[in-house]
Amino acid sequence: MNMKKDTRRQHHVWRSYLEAWSTNQTIFCLMDSLIFPSNVSGVGVERDFYKLSPLTSTDIQGIRWLFEGKMHPSGKRVRENFLTAFGFPGWLLSNPPPHLAGNAKYEAQLRHQIINVEEDWHAALENKMTPVIAALRRRETSVYTDDKECIPFLHFLCLQMLRTKGVRDKIAARTSEMNGFSIVRCWNILRHIFAVNAGLSLYLERKKRSLLLLENNTDVPFITGDQPVVNLFSNSASDKPPELFAPYYPLNPSTALIIDEVEHRCGYTSGSTSVEQVRTLNRRIREASYRQVFSNSKEVLQDIIASS
């Protein structure tokens, strides 16, 4: 059987998500103070973005050590599953079983996995979330009260915050290898484990946390960016991690969601938003963005430049 062709252009922002801001597949992008139209396939993308790094035995031990004693047994199974899926292809390429050393077909299969396995994983999750996001855009919130559907949705939401190029590059800039353990090499795995843990925390508190759906009927559309999920309690001017977490996720130009905090409310409510609220949330997206901000309106992006 022929091996599936490698997907080399890999989106770190879900392409189908960005299509909600496009017209005939064209979206307006703000980058480096320049605004230009682009096909959605040309933004939020990088060649081999999800290519796995070859892990050392120390890296694998380090991932286990980071979460040892802090995870439920089911969480440990999740950790081991991600280690197997995203950790061992690169390790096996460098440490093949004796009977497969030099086997060209075996090496080709591993190289294909190294490039594509995480890309395929994101694609499978996105396919599962497509009807969920469509329902939320219709302002239907049943996913939040459905025990079976809520866990993967909250995992997906947290992963959209952690999968981005901006987060990856900040991790690379702020960490260094310690005693042979590299967070950067392990990030393909760590981001998934962190997303599972964060999503589970949201799930366990969901009866105390409101899911807010914001309805934008103003002339100023919601924008999004290459960091599409923003913690409303984060401070872009501070390197200190925020103690509170209220993820904001624009769903399209007229709808956005927030998972509110338990006691310290974010200040928004479900229903219609004012122009000033929309502009404030758009500024949060711009401030959190790494390089690119997206809209269906060139004028809105021009206003953002003028007000910055």
UniProtKB/TrEMBL annotation:
InterPro entries: DUF4238 (IPR025332). It comes from the Bacteria. This is DUF4238 domain-containing protein.
